[in-house]
Amino acid sequence: MEPCENILFNKDGFKFVCIKKNNYKLTFGMNNHNIMLPKIVDFSLIKLIYDLNPDVYENIQIEQLNENEAFSTMLMKHLFEDLGLPQRYSFAHITKTANEKQITFVTQSIKTHRPEGIPEDAELMAIENMEIICDIVSSHVVNFNINIIFDNSMNVPSFVEKIIGVILNKVFKRVKQFIENVVV
Prior knowledge:
single chain; 184 residues; Alpha-D-Glucose-1,6-Bisphosphate, Chain A, domain 4; ten-stranded mixed sheet
C-alpha cells in the first residue's frame, strides 16, 4: 500500500492524518480537574457521542454484553447524498481492555449479517480494525490515539477524506467540550 502521510485536519488539538490508503489516525487530549476521567472512559461514551451529535447520527444502539464487550450499531445521517455517495452505517463488535496506564477499545465490523432497522440502500462502513488507545496521563488527563483501518472494500475518495476530518473534529470536539466542562 502506498503511504500518503497526509495531514487532513489539524486544529484545536485535533489531528487527523492519512497514514496510507484506508488507514487513518486521529489524536486529541481531554482534561478536567473536577472528575476522574479514566472512570468515565467506557461504553457510555458511545451514547454520549450520539447524544451530542444528532446532526451526524440518525440512530445508535449499544448492546453491552459484559464489562469488556459490546455490539454497536450506528446509522449516520445521509451526509453525502448530494454527492451521490450512499448513506453509511457501522455494525461492530467492540472489546475493551484496561490497566492503570491505558484503556483500549478494539472495534471490528460485523459483516455476517445486517442489523435490523438499517435502510436497504445504506452501506456498511467496513472497519477492518479500529483501535482507540486512551493513555491515562493522570486522573484528570487522558490522551486519545485512534487508529482506523477500513476494509479494502471501502473506497474513500480523497475529497471525502478532508470532509471526514471536519466531521470527526466536530463530533469529538463536542464530546471533549462537554466532558471538560463537567463540574461536580
